[in-house]
Design goal:
Layout (H helix, E strand, L loop, with lengths): L1 H7 L2 H9 L3 H7 L1 E2 L5 E2 L2 H29 L1 H22 L7
Antiparallel strand pairs: 1-2
Helix pairs in contact: 4-5
């Protein structure tokens, strides 16, 4: 069990970098340049990387006390409800990525 956990450690860090190399993601979020190729704007790529680090920092500060108080299971339930609420708010505000 420990070997699986050790092997999976760091996966969440590489996932953030790998998604911006995914062609489907680039076509959905990126814009066409003069040659017709879809590409991500450099400032969007920088923000994407910074948000992962910011989320990790916030989680380390606020989630650990919750986990110590209520346990991991209830903390994960709380986190999923928060993420569901954020996703719902973002989907309600969504107009189109091309307008951003």
């Amino acid at each position: 069990m420990m070997c699986v956990a050790a092997g999976a450690d760091g996966y969440q860090i590489s996932l953030n970098g790998n998604i911006i190399a995914n062609l489907g993601f680039v076509r959905k979020i990126g814009r066409q340049n003069a040659t017709g190729v879809y590409a991500l704007a450099p400032n969007h790529t920088a923000i994407w990387g910074a948000m992962q680090s910011l989320g990790q920092l916030i989680a380390m500060v606020f989630i650990n006390p919750l986990s110590d108080t209520f346990g991991r299971k209830y903390t994960l339930y709380f986190l999923w409800f928060v993420l569901l609420g954020v996703r719902h708010l973002l989907s309600r505000m969504y107009i189109g990525w091309s307008l951003m």
